[in-house]
Specification:
322 residues; 11 strands; 5-stranded mixed sheet; D-Maltodextrin-Binding Protein, domain 2; 17% strand; alpha/beta
């Protein structure tokens, strides 16, 4: 038997073995690592999926919180885990597509070491102002910001967060330089906008929507590519003057590097299935999360596009983590 034939036979046998393993998976409990404390969008999405997978698989799916360093600690843990499907990662783009550029010494390769299985969901932000500011539409805001950016600032829940980078993308798009004020959490920043100490910020729907509807904040536009069914009265920034403007806190499901394509495909199919359960859709929507559930190839393409997009914004805005 020739060496080439031996290699071909070995590849076939490995493929058959991987398919058989994927079909019998899972045979024990599965751990989903979340690199943040309980209660945020990432943790909530992970727990909704974990509960539904437990019901589907008949095996416990446990969420383990490993907070620290913008989710990097949790992602690194999974990157070093066995590629057998029993340790998975739920992470937002701050730990993946943004971290690639923002953290030059990132201890894992996002594409190779934590390959993405699917994008679970996406949560846009609203651009909100203190009601004392003159603009009442986003087009009015663009003119106002260009004329007054030297005295304007915007807040966020922290350096490198999605609301921070949304503000920087706005700066780049308008050729302005509004000053970023990082807070230790979104709620603190929102409180300062409510009090008039901070003029504006991008804020998540669950936090900002009730305040906007009550007239305590003025919401001008949403960052999703289409209007949100949760807040259809607010136009998108893309339709209001900055074509292709889009930001969102999106959450992906990842596996350790080396996980077989067959197993990734099996997990993907089951996760997409539970994302379509009516009660899962409702619970995600209540948290301001638009479910996605794309294929591994579609998710990988999206991840790479996001890496490219945020690298340009971070470099153009000279964002640095000290």
């Amino acid at each position: 038997m020739t060496k080439s034939l031996m290699r071909g036979l070995t590849a076939v046998l490995l493929s058959i073995s991987a398919m058989a393993y994927a079909q019998s998976y899972p045979a024990k409990s599965v751990r989903i690592v979340v690199g943040f404390t309980p209660g945020g969008v990432t943790d909530v999405a992970a727990r909704i999926i974990a509960q539904k997978l437990t019901e589907l698989w008949g095996q416990s799916v446990i969420v383990e919180n490993r907070p620290g360093a913008s989710g990097i600690i949790g992602a690194e843990t999974v990157s070093k885990s066995a590629p057998d499907g029993y340790t998975l990662l739920v992470a937002p783009q701050t730990s993946t597509s943004v971290a690639v550029t923002l953290y030059p010494k990132l201890p894992y390769d996002v594409v190779r070491d934590i390959p993405i299985i699917t994008v679970l969901g996406s949560s846009p932000q609203l651009l909100v102002l203190h009601p004392s500011l003159p603009p009442r539409t986003f087009r009015e805001f663009m003119a106002f910001a260009r004329a007054n950016y030297k005295t304007l600032s915007f807040g966020s829940g922290g350096l490198g967060s999605t609301p921070h980078l949304a503000g920087e993308l706005l700066n780049v798009s308008l050729t302005t330089k509004m000053v970023h004020i990082p807070y230790k959490g979104e709620n603190t920043a929102v409180a300062d906008v409510l009090g008039g100490q901070l003029p504006l910020m991008f804020s998540s729907l669950p936090v900002s929507l009730p305040l906007s509807k009550a007239g305590k904040l003025r919401a001008l536009a949403i960052t999703s590519p289409q209007r949100s069914p949760l807040a259809p009265e607010y136009p998108t920034i893309a339709e209001s003057g900055i074509p292709e403007f889009e930001t969102a806190t999106w959450v992906g499901l990842h596996a350790p590097g080396g996980t077989s394509r067959e197993l990734i495909s099996r997990i993907n199919g089951d996760v997409v299935r539970v994302l379509n359960y009516p009660d899962a859709k409702e619970r995600l929507a209540q948290q301001g999360i638009d479910r996605v559930g794309n294929s591994p190839d579609e998710a990988a393409a999206y991840l790479k596009a996001e890496i490219t997009k945020w690298a340009k914004v971070i470099k153009a805005a000279n964002v640095r983590i000290d």
